[in-house]
Design brief:
Blueprint lengths: L1 H6 L3 H15 L18 H4 L1
Length: about 50
Amino acid sequence: MVRALKAAKDPDHWLKAMEAVVLSRASGDFDNYTALGLWVLESESAIG
């Protein structure tokens, strides 16, 4: 998860990478297929 997050450009890319990991490891039926990704960025005005 952390590697995918570090490599991601944005939340969409991170979620797609995580989905690929889940699908490569999951088997059978799974009922909890939900994810939420968001980026929190500091604005330049908050920095200084």
